[in-house]
Write a structure and sequence with these properties.
With about 250 residues, the protein is an alpha+beta fold. The chain is built from six helices and nine strands; from the N terminus they run E-E-E-H-E-E-H-E-E-E-E-H-H-H-H. The strands form three sheets. Strands 1-2-3-5-4 form a five-stranded antiparallel β-sheet, covered by helices on one side. The longest helix has 25 residues. The protein is globular. The termini are far apart.
Length: about 250
């Protein structure tokens, strides 16, 4: 008998033995084709598609512990930053060559379309065993975009980059060094300023999407999430101004 899985607020997810059931959409055939492509490219730590029936998709279950909010202490270790960035690089590299003809995406594509972005690559969509990253889940929002679109968002969630960081997480005083760990582990020559700039744009995008989904899914609590993203935008914008001698938010 399928049992509900905790976590995601954008879909109804159930576990049925060694498989997972989720609500399907027009984008599901594209996502399934992409997940199969990743499997052929040697990415064996993501779900694999099984079927779509009765408006539901069935995927293989990725074993491991997926952290829920409030995130546990071990999520904030440097090893999670490093391994997360390395896995994201492998995911991006494996997506190169995926055919886009006839593709339908739930999340709008971004430019430049360098890779297929996960679009929610963050601790709450990663599976761990004893604090070691072993898999990634929840690909239904993936779409083409620049590498930095995912990289900056991962930093936003895992560094973290926020006005009100959790009590058990490193504060913004450590953020620059932690962002550099992410960039180095990914193999990016981007800078702290690049990450902050895209993180701000990414948060605006999340706020807009959350307000749309609040209506579409009849989940008004998503408006609270949007308000939080906007507060973080305002904080990070002031933080970048401080680097130029301006006020600190």
């Amino acid at each position: 008998m399928p049992e509900p899985l905790p976590g995601g607020n954008m879909n109804a997810v159930e576990r049925d033995g060694d498989t997972v059931l989720r609500n399907a959409g027009p984008w599901t055939p594209t996502v399934h084709r992409y997940l199969a492509y990743l499997g052929r490219a040697g990415i064996d730590w993501v779900p694999q598609p099984l079927e779509v029936a009765g408006g539901r998709e069935r995927l293989t279950f990725v074993a491991g512990d997926v952290p829920l909010y409030p995130l546990p202490d071990w999520v904030w270790t440097e090893s999670v930053l490093v391994e997360g960035a390395r896995r994201l690089r492998r995911l991006h590299d494996a997506s190169i060559g995926f055919g886009l003809d006839g593709a339908v995406w739930q999340s709008p594509a971004k430019v430049p379309a360098e890779v297929i972005c996960h679009n929610d690559f963050a601790p709450h969509n990663l599976a761990f065993e004893d604090g070691r990253l072993v898999g990634a889940i929840d690909f239904d929002m993936c779409s083409p975009g620049p590498r930095m679109w995912d990289l900056a968002y991962f930093a936003t969630r895992a560094v973290p980059l926020a006005r009100d960081t959790p009590a058990n997480a490193p504060g913004m005083a450590q953020a620059r060094a932690r962002v550099q760990l992410v960039l180095d582990a990914y193999g990016s020559d981007s800078t702290w300023d690049d990450v902050l700039r895209v993180a701000i744009i990414r948060l605006w995008d999340l706020a807009d999407m959350s307000r749309v989904k609040a209506v579409e899914l009849e989940k008004p609590d998503l408006n609270d999430d949007a308000d939080l993203y906007v507060r973080d935008v305002e904080y990070l914008a002031a933080f970048t101004a401080a680097d130029d001698g301006g006020p600190h938010g």
